[in-house]
């Protein structure tokens, strides 16, 4: 990001708008009622996924408390993604999800598909305005598109102020429709991953591969409901409570994840494509406090989530903005997250056990705890513009949920830690 160019965006857009209107450009007449926020984020996991993201949001003030909010996000991901298959003390071969090509994993290494890459574009728009005295309404839409995934949603909310605007009740509703169309199609539940080397020719392999595919694409519909209460405690303390409900119906299996079937010695006999339930209901409670403390600002929050997959989580987040002189501030952050495993999570299947209805070895729905340690540094520039930098260290610690590892698996790290670092630069103007 070139900050000089960003600082001149407002003037450039003003000049362009005036030119289109056939009027001479006059500084400070076209975009006075617009506020822009931009950011560039870089994220990198050790030996795994890397991501870059560009964000631009705009807020226009049309007077009478009427606002238009627009957002654009473009991100690119690449690197290696864990497949869910278990490590082995020997070389393993895997077929890519598309059915074309294969790759090998070294002894003792976590199986990772190193061709993971995608680009996503997201657009958001929202309008908000007063509805009646002490009432506000808003509505908007969202579109997100990547190579094999499309998400479209509509949202709306209503808020009512009480107690001389010191208390606000709000209700929000969002409806989304997602379509997943993975390359190679969607595998049938627990279909085996096939290897080209086990077939005499390409034709027989392709016929067998096609037989493991159930359909080309599938969809998911989600309804999200949010009930909120915001309360001004005093001039230095703002508190918020939220309850949210999310009900999803449709395809929620990850089409790229595998579950290994092992024998009594822990040796892989087969790798199967996972299968998850097609319904999920999530609840969460959120409590946030913002306090002004002698020139500094403390932001502390806690969230508890539970669902009918028997996955529960706790999230505690603490930020403290402190003045450090010269117009700069520092904002250290500490975030801790802990979750239990979903009821159908299993790091592997035993060959002797009956096949379950649902199973996934995706560590993201397994037992784990994570922490984020970061800091943000920012300053006010001319005309009220703001420049900030943020860097954070993220540590993810998957854990064993009491599963005994047979044979060779006892000497293999089945719950490998994931470490990531992220850096962000933001500019508001």
From TrEMBL:
Pfam family, one: DUF3570
Highest taxon listed in the record's lineage: Bacteria
Species whose genome carries this gene: Arsukibacterium ikkense
Keyword Signal attributed: yes
Record key words, sorted: Signal
The protein's name in its UniProt record: DUF3570 domain-containing protein
Segment forming the signal sequence: 1-27
Keyword Transit peptide: no
């Amino acid at each position: 990001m070139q900050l000089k160019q960003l600082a001149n965006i407002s003037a450039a857009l003003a000049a362009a708008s005036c030119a289109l209107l056939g009027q001479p450009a006059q500084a400070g007449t076209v975009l006075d009622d617009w506020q822009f926020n931009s950011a560039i984020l870089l994220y990198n996991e050790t030996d795994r996924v890397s991501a870059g993201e560009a964000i631009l949001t705009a807020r226009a003030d049309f007077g009478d408390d009427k606002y238009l909010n627009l957002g654009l996000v473009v991100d690119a991901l690449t690197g290696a993604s864990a497949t869910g298959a278990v490590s082995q003390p020997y070389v393993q071969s895997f077929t890519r999800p598309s059915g074309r090509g294969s790759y090998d994993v070294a002894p003792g290494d976590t199986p990772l598909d190193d061709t993971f890459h995608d680009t996503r574009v997201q657009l958001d728009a929202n309008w908000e305005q007063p509805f009646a005295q002490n009432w506000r309404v808003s509505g908007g839409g969202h579109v997100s598109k990547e190579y094999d995934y499309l998400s479209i949603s509509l949202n709306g909310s209503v808020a009512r102020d009480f107690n001389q605007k010191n208390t606000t009740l709000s209700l929000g509703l969002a409806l989304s429709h997602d379509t997943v169309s993975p390359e190679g199609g969607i595998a049938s539940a627990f279909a085996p991953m096939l290897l080209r080397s086990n077939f005499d020719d390409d034709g027989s392999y392709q016929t067998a591969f096609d037989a493991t595919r159930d359909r080309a694409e599938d969809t998911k519909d989600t309804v999200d409901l949010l009930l909120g209460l915001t309360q001004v405690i005093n001039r230095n303390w703002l508190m918020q409570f939220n309850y949210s409900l999310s009900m999803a119906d449709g395809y929620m299996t990850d089409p790229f994840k595998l579950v290994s079937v092992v024998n009594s010695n822990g040796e892989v006999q087969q790798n199967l494509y996972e299968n998850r339930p097609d319904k999920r209901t999530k609840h969460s409670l959120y409590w946030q406090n913002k306090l002004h403390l002698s020139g500094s600002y403390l932001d502390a929050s806690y969230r508890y989530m539970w669902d009918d997959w028997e996955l529960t989580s706790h999230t505690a987040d603490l930020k403290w903005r402190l003045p450090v002189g010269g117009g700069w501030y520092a904002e250290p952050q500490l975030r801790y997250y802990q979750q239990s495993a979903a009821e159908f999570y299993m790091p592997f299947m035993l060959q002797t056990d009956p096949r379950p209805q649902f199973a996934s070895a995706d560590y993201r729905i397994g037992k784990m705890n994570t922490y984020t340690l970061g800091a943000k540094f920012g300053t006010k520039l001319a005309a009220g513009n703001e420049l900030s930098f943020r860097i954070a260290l993220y540590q993810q610690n998957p854990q064993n949920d009491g599963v005994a590892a047979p044979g060779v698996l006892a000497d293999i790290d089945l719950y490998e830690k994931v470490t990531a670092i992220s850096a962000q630069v933001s500019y508001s103007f």
